Fold:
Amino acid sequence: MDSLDREVLEHARDWFAAGRGVWLVTVVETWGSAPRPPGALLALRDDGLVIGSVSGGCVEDDLIKRVQTGERVARPSLVVYGIAKEDAARFGLPCGGTLRLLQEPVTDAGWIPEVLERTARHELVARTLDLETGRATLEPAQRGEAFAFDGRFARAVFGPRYRLLMIGAGQLSRVLAEMAKALDFQVYVCDPREEYYTTLELPQVTWLPGMPDDAIAAFRPDAHTAVVALTHDPKLDDLALIEALKSPAFYVGALGSRRNTAKRRERLGLFELSADEIARLHGPIGLHIGSRTPAEIAVAILAEIVSVKNGVEPTQKKSPQEADACPIAD
Structure:
């Protein structure tokens, strides 16, 4: 669950607790070039205050107007925007785009704290709403599940935010951290070298003390975690990678040239790692975009992480010659 969805649920909980009327609005189906995917969520208060998004803005304006003029649904119901081209233009949808939305009055917000607590523990939670009865249930969800709607039951999946754990607190780490935060990753960094961590000043980045392998073992990376080793020091990077490659982390990468990556794989083979575990290592790290500066390298690394997260094969990799010639990868 990204931070925006969390904000939506937190506001809905607080508004309801304050005695306000609250509605949750969810995108359940789209056709054409709809701007927001199924599962996109917003909360709407009885005075028109809104948080979250289901479109580019004009649909939200219409929803606000409806509730301000007294059109307030009392049970879960569906509303469709953009069937005709005229409607698509009117509501700011791309040509032919259509949204079907689920409007749900919040009559009991007791489930929201449970979802927030469970996702904070890095659990996946599914909430299934029966549109006919208004009854909702919570149950564990599986990685890979997405929002689903069959005409009667809407099943929304709430998951933990993605995390990025960086080994090394150098200049590249600083830039990578800021970009990762913009992509809604929770960012963590571990570097036992005093000359690095004493000057670390990164708001909203969590410092993990100790040696990297111990930090990763205590951190317990899960399927929503990416780990990148950036120190260029085998004593730090390799030990961290051993722990990370044995974990369910969806991405494990290390900075270095193709030549140095091959040497690293040989070293990793001396430890209790299987060939499949070693094969999970992304190296040389990042997509090939001609990166030279720390910011460009950070873009390349995050592009690869996002592609793996989204299930897209990261095909734009360096050739052996380019990788070995890269001055910043050694």
Summary: The chain has two domains: 3-158, 163-325. The chain has twelve helices and 15 strands. The longest helix spans residues 294-309.
